[in-house]
C-alpha cells in the first residue's frame, strides 16, 4: 500500500479527463448541429465542406441573377408589346389614308395621329429602363461597324448572338430606283463576302434593309438608306460580338448568358419619314409598317426565347443547389440520433469515472489504520 503515488487515482483521472473532452465535443455537435465544428474534427471534410458551401452560395446568387434577367426581359417585352400595338394602329391608319375616298384634310388629320404615335414610340424606346439601364435605346445591342468612312448611310442594325464574329466581312452592292422613284439597293446585286469569298448564306433586301442568313440560321441585318453615296459599292464590316447585357448564371468565370436587344428607333423600324398625307405616301406607309411589325416581332421572339432559357436555367440551378446541399449536409451535419447515443454513453462514463476517482482517492487514507 503506497501513500505518495496513487496509481489508481491517476488512471481514473486520465480516463475521466478523456471522457469529459469527448463529452464536450459531443455537446458542441449536438448544440451546433454540425459534426465538423473545428478543423481537427475532420481536416479533409472541413476543406471539402467549405468549398461546397461557397459553391452553394454562388449558385444561390446566380439563381437570383437569372430571376433578375427574367424581370429585365419582361420589362423590355412589355414595352415592345405597346410599341407593336402602336405600329399596328399606324398600319390601320395607313390603310385608311390609302383609300381614295379621303380628302387632303382627312389625310392631314390621320397624319397628325401617326406623328403622335411615332413620338410615343421614340419616348418609350428612350425611357424604358431597368435599374437605371436603358433597354431599347441600343445600349444592350451587339456592336457592329462599317469600316468605310464614306458609307455613312450604311449601318449595322442587329445580328444574332451566335453570328460568327472576328471574320473579315464585306458587302458589295449597287443602287437603283424603285417604282416610286426612291433610291434603293438593287436586290440582285448584293454580295456578302466572308474572308474574301462570297457566302453561301441567303441575302434578302427589303426596302432599306439587307438581311444575311448564314447556313446555321444566324442572321445579320444592315440598313442602307438613300443618303448612301452612289459611289460606295463595297464596304468592310466589323462584327465583333461586343455588347449586350451579360448575366452571370454560374459559380465560375464564363458561365454567363448574354441578353441582346437591338436599338428600337424609327430608322431601324423603317418608320422614319412616314407620311400619309398623299395617297402614294399612304401606300408606301403600308410597306413601312409591315417592315416595322416584322422587326418588332423578331425582337420579341428573341426575348421570348431568352425568357424560356432563363427559366430553364433557374430550374437547373435549383436542382444543382439541392443536390450540392445534400452532399454538403452529408459531410457537415451531425446525425442527432447517433450523436445522442454517443452523448448518453459518455455521460454514463463520466459519472462512473467520477465515482471511481472518488474511491481511488480514499485508498491512501486506509494506510492510517496501519499506524494505529
Please, could you describe this protein's structure?
The protein is an alpha+beta fold and 372 residues long. The protein has a domain of 102 residues. The protein has 5 helices and 15 strands. The strands form 5 sheets. It has a 5-stranded antiparallel β-sheet with strand order 3-13-5-8-9, with no helix packed on it. Strands 4-12-11-10 form a 4-stranded antiparallel β-sheet, with no helix packed on it. The two termini are 15 Å apart.
Give the N-terminus to C-terminus distance in angstroms.
15 Å
Largest sheet: 5 strands, antiparallel
Number of strand segments: 15
Can you count the helices?
Answer: 5
Shape: elongated
Q: Looking across the biggest beta sheet, what order are the strands in?
A: 3-13-5-8-9
Residue share in helix: 40-55%
Strand content: 15-25%
Give the low-confidence spans. Answer: none
Kindly provide the radius of gyration, computed on alpha-carbon positions and rounded to a whole number of angstroms.
38 Å
What is the element string, with H for helices and E for strands? HHHEEEEEEEEEEEEEEEHH
Mean pLDDT: 88
Class per helix and strand makeup: alpha+beta
